[in-house]
Amino acid sequence: MDTSPISTQLTGRQQKLMQKAKELEATFLAEMLAYSGLGEQQGAFAGGQGEAQFSSFLRQEQARLMVESGGIGLAELIFNSMARSESDAT
């Protein structure tokens, strides 16, 4: 039984689809982190306007690392859907 990750068994076109699916999952997770209030500081130690401007970069990187560590499985669902749609179109 082959237990290697799905992304190591893909062709060139499929790898591109998987990368796009991972980017979409990371964007979704970054938005969810923003709504959860992750990293927001209040009071005298809050970063003010500078923190507000750059916190999205931190959340995006945290989300990307979450996806690279396995994520929540959304990327595989998106990939399977895109691959199925692509095969149906041909």
Describe the model.
By secondary structure, the protein is an all-alpha fold. The protein has a domain at 22-33 and 50-90. It is 69% helix and 0% strand. It has helices spanning 12-36, 48-68, 74-89. The chain is elongated and about 55 Å long. The two termini are 30 Å apart. The model has no long low-confidence stretch (mean pLDDT 83).
Counted by DSSP, the helix tally is 3
Q: What gross morphology would you assign?
A: elongated
First and last CA, distance: 30 Å
Low-confidence stretches: none
- What pattern of helices and strands is seen along the backbone? HHH
Radius of gyration: 17 Å
Average pLDDT number: 83
Give the structural class.
mainly alpha
Q: Which range best describes the helical content: under 10%, 10-25%, 25-40%, 40-55%, 55-70% or over 70%?
A: 55-70%
Tell me about the largest β-sheet: none
Number of strands: 0
User: Proportion of β residues?
Assistant: under 5%
Q: What is shown here, in short?
A:
With 90 residues, this protein is mainly alpha-helical. The chain has helices spanning 12-36, 48-68, 74-89.
